[in-house]
Hints:
The structure holds 2 protein chains of 2 kinds. By secondary structure, chain A is an all-beta fold. Chain A is built from no helices and 11 strands.
Amino acid sequence: GAGVSQSPSNKVTEKGKDVELRCDPISGHTALYWYRQSLGQGLEFLIYFQGNSAPDKSGLPSDRFSAERTGGSVSTLTIQRTQQEDSAVYLCASSRGRDRGHYEQYFGPGTRLTVT
Amino acid sequence: AQSVSQHNHHVILSEAASLELGCNYSYGGTVNLFWYVQYPGQHLQLLLKYFSGDPLVKGIKGFEAEFIKSKFSFNLRKPSVQWSDTAEYFCAVKNSGGYNKLIFGAGTRLAVHP
């Protein structure tokens, strides 16, 4: 079936505005992850969902960042009062969430966020 | 905290040259190890993975990696690169006892010239 999809592909916003980034995981994948990739950096973990709950939010950089997942499917990452340092590519990944299938994460194309 | 180091940020090779990309991680417990690749304009995709057993792991497109526990290393190799291997390569580690988050290295950008 279809892979992980993300929208929008590009987002330019003004400093101080709120943004929402969307992720549609692969159908049937119960685990969902958000990462971000800043210029010249590797991928930085943000948050992990198992079903609709988030047992690991340890990577969210500040309380301006939040995420939710509904129906065990679509997830939204919200950044409030955006700052220039939030500029990055935000990547979503999903995995089957069972046994060793848990481990292979399939990545989406990312949302490139630019805060001006 | 766990971390992953990729020693080479940029590598330039000619076709048919051999490739070895270094990856070291810091974590004393049991780990699962991965190499991901991102071709220009494409998504990140899994190249190979190590869970347990034979420390020499073979992946897609002729790539292999060797887990050396004593050196905390998981270097990626390919005996003869092709122009189509031009991409960015990321090493990642997961703490096998923890949640499934992956800790990534900063990536190595490989350019293969014909």
